[in-house]
Design brief:
The complex is a heterodimer of chains A (130) and B (366). With 130 residues, chain A is of the alpha+beta class. Chain A is built from three helices and nine strands, in the order E-E-E-H-E-E-E-E-E-H-E-H. The longest helix of chain A has 11 residues. By secondary structure, chain B is α+β, with helices and mostly antiparallel strands. In chain B, a hairpin with an 8-residue loop joins strand 11 and strand 12. Classes of the chains: A alpha+beta (130), B alpha+beta (366). The interface between A and B is medium-sized, with 12 and 17 residues.
Amino acid sequence: MEFPEDLKYTREHEWVSIEGSVATIGITDHAQEQLGDVVFVELPSVGDRVEKADAFGVVESTKAVSDVYAPLSGEVAEVNDDLPDNPELINEDPYGDGWMVKITLGDKADLDDLMTADEYRKFIEESAPE
Amino acid sequence: MSRRTPLFDLHRTAGARFTEFSGWEMPVQYAGIIAEHNLVRSSAGLFDVSHMGELEIRGSGALALCQRVATNDASKLAVGQAQYTVWCTDDGGTIDDTILYRLGPERYMFCVNAGNAEACRDWIREQQKHVPGADVVDRCDELGLIALQGPRAVEVARRLAADALPALARFGCTETTVAGVPVIAARTGYTGEDGFELFVETFQVAQLWQALLEVASDDLPIAPIGLGARDTLRLEAALPLYGHELSRDISPLEAGLGWAVKLSGKGEFVGSRALAAQKQRGLARRVVGIELREAGIARADYPVKSGGRTVGVVTSGTKSPTLGTAIALALLASESVDAPLSVEIRGRAIQAERVRTPFYRRDDAR
């Protein structure tokens, strides 16, 4: 399972990539694997305000519905328009073509709560039941 | 404590992910639900459904007991035939939906759902008191069950020289051997495809499972299929799942299973008066198939609305891997089934429309 070093991670299994004041957000390889085949994605609209820890989107697999939580607060600058028609991109390339939204950062202090790749890997290992 | 089937270790070795189902720790997926689903539609898949229960009814009163507890007409079964049939309470609610196999002149077997096995056993032992000459043998622990399903299931049987299987008619059953293992084989299933269900003694389940998997080749792909794909397959075929389309609160008539409820011809049975009254009054609600006309997936328990009013509830729903559309079964007020419908998904009304079921019908099905 992949955990790119240059990304930040949340306990809800989102990843965040920071470029200047824009954060790109998606769900992790671990999350997509746990979900199974993703068949539906619901995203916010450009211009929507998202609040840290609130659900901003929904990812549905064949069996389950999962909320996706905002790792930080800000305004939606861009959404991945390919996802509604190709939700399987989340399974195939969770850190690349499967990205979900770009958010213009409000408070940079939000970043302090995010985990590094090492911390996230440890977090998964510790929370794994088997 | 969850129970495990005799194949648990094989499933784990094969990389299965498990889920709790009716008190059993069952494989929910191996390669992925969609890939498994598509394999069953295109080639053949193997299902470990050993959690299902088996109750054998024997003796001179066996037929009478079957007739008493179940809605279909068991007197129509010749030895070597099976039928879908439903058990009801006195008020017409559903205890379970089952398949009844006639194995001998005075030998029948009900296959019951795992989650209802105990309730069914207790129920039929109670009913047995009213019928002389009928013995009930609980074979739940003694028998496992493997389903081999798919358009190429017949080829798999032939490769194992199990010629008795392809010779079976739809809903036929026989006692035979497959790969040297004694089985009760039936041409039944829960996927909308051709195929077989093989009841096998617990200690030989693994042997049969491996023999079936060993037939797999590049030309004839076969793989284990989890409960996830079993659910999407049965839903495309619009087959009911107990606890969703059927319950103590939903009668078989409401679930659209009137064809398996014989209110005339076989005499009274448990629930027949309530069901006859329900039919005479007219059904207030019915399970129908719907398809979403906007993006979204209808899931169990989502409200269904019409003209701003709630007219029912989704009982099962998914994105159909075969059709690519969002399909669902819903229990709706009868007067609304053909009205413009919407499903409430996360507070939004998503347009839906009633469609014919089954959603998917295999090419050769008559």
